[in-house]
TrEMBL record:
Name of this protein: Uncharacterized protein
Length: 61
């Protein structure tokens, strides 16, 4: 049984990853990145509005 730093080296494959798999992985990462940009864009204004509305002091009381 391997020990120390060689454990992960034993897991490494000597085979080449197919090109279609590389493209699929890059595509998934790009999809996640784009989704996060969309979510950030739409929630940023909502959260900023919420913070401003909570921080405004009510002077009518």
């Amino acid at each position: 049984m391997s020990s120390g730093n060689t454990v992960f080296k034993d897991l490494e494959s000597t085979e080449e990853v197919p090109a279609y798999l590389k493209r699929a992985l890059v595509s998934e990462v790009n999809t996640i990145r784009d989704t996060m940009h969309v979510v950030e864009h739409f929630t940023e204004h909502f959260i900023n509005t919420l913070i401003v509305s909570l921080s405004i002091e009510d002077t009518d009381l």
